[in-house]
Amino acid sequence: MLNKRETLRHQKAVDPETGRILGYARWCLPLSYEMNPDDGTPIWPEAQVPAVEPEREAEIRRMAETVIWDPNNDADELLDRVNALEKEVTPRTPYISLEYLAVHPDNQRKGVGTALVKSGMDQADKMGIEIFVHALREGAELYKRMGFRLIAELVQDDSAYGGSGEYGVYFFVYEPGSRTDSA
Ligand SMILES: CC(C)(COP(=O)(O)OP(=O)(O)OC[C@H]1O[C@@H](n2cnc3c(N)ncnc32)[C@H](O)[C@@H]1OP(=O)(O)O)[C@@H](O)C(=O)NCCC(=O)NCCS
Question: Which of the following CATH numbers is that of domain 8-174: 3.40.50.1820, 3.40.630.30, 3.40.50.80, 3.40.50.740?
Fold first, then answer.
């Protein structure tokens, strides 16, 4: 959470009665859009992780480095095609990236994902720049409903790697001011 503090913005949706976290979204602001040019204060400060004391940060980073990161690279050929397409369709103008969106399975289909995405759309409207998202099948309908435009999609057979046979990725753009009634 302390990485790229300047540009990353995090949001959690919390149940006010139980305090349980229902969902989470991570956004990345484009460089040079992360602070107000007039006074240097951060843009969207309520979604920025607060800084911690340097000693505390060093301790957190030491702990993070002990994690064993050993991903399985078997399906990389599928990802290579996804990455190539993403490179091709990524907007050439500054954009907010929706990097991560997840709602706990117990709380899905209750509007939590919509609320999280909506708050990023509010920022995009305020800043006058697009949102770009690399979506999975589960999220595609949500973005469409909210007024995002599908700019590319790729469905590949992932059955050789234990998948369902249809590994789909969808690239969407939200242009500021173009939200639909359901957003
Ligand atoms: C995708 C996800 C974030 C949606 O969050 P959510 O809180 O359930 O979404 P909402 O309740 O706001 O749903 C709004 C609309 O999106 C669509 N939608 C949501 N989940 C869907 C799903 N699993 N399949 C198809 N459409 C879906 C529906 O149109 C839904 O409206 P409806 O419930 O009236 O039919 C959530 O299902 C999730 O975390 N999935 C696992 C992680 C994941 O795939 N994240 C990547 C997203 S790109």
Answer: 3.40.630.30
